[in-house]
Design brief:
The chain is mainly β. The protein has one helix spanning 2-18; strands spanning 24-38, 47-59, 64-76, 80-96, 99-115, 129-140, 145-154, 159-161, 164-179. It has a single domain (2-179), classed as Porin. The longest helix has 17 residues, at 2-18.
């Protein structure tokens, strides 16, 4: 796991160094409409929580960019509020100027887990790492303001209780700004 993280970080740093003059640094904030699903595909109630963080867009070609992000993300369900430090590694394809399709993996590190009924810390019930896939669309204005919407599909099990495994899922809508 650490070896993969090191290789990913090394690759990101290499890409950033190669295209340093074209980098766009930014920040974004928005909402997650999140739930937890179990292996029977039952969804718990949806919760709405915040997401915010920093990002950098690295152009690879005229139509393709790489966008790593570092995001604080509220997820979970109405009965279990989970907070993560997420690292999405997003590939962007610009269909036309400003309009991009987004896809990429994400690794999330669990920061906290709380039972909403009792305010009890339930972090020991959940795994510390969550792997998922993002699919989305974004639009960037000429002034640096951007909007995006993503669906995040959990790939790894975040908990197993009484033989029932669960995964994160959420829809994220956000607004941000690129500092040129």
């Amino acid at each position: 796991m650490r070896k993969r993280l090191f290789i990913t970080a090394f690759t990101v740093i290499g890409l950033i160094t190669m295209n340093a003059q074209e980098l766009k640094f930014g920040a974004k904030a928005g909402l997650n409409f999140a739930t937890i699903t179990n292996d029977a595909e039952n969804e718990l109630d949806i919760t709405t929580d915040i997401v915010f963080g920093l990002l950098v867009e690295v152009p690879i070609s005229e139509k393709i960019s790489f966008q790593p992000e570092l995001m604080y993300s509220g997820q979970g369900s109405s009965s279990a509020i989970l907070t993560y430090l997420n690292v999405p590694l997003i590939g962007k394809y610009y269909v036309v100027k400003g309009l991009s399709l987004e896809v990429g993996p994400q690794i999330g590190f669990l920061l906290s887990a709380e039972d909403t009924d009792t305010d009890a810390d339930i972090k020991d019930v959940f795994t510390n790492v969550d792997l998922s896939m993002n699919l989305g669309v974004g639009y960037t204005l000429n002034n640096g303001l951007f909007f995006n919407a993503r669906y995040n599909l959990g790939l790894s099990d975040i908990s197993t209780v009484d033989g029932i495994t669960t995964k994160n899922r959420f829809l994220q809508v956000a607004v941000g700004y690129f500092f040129f």
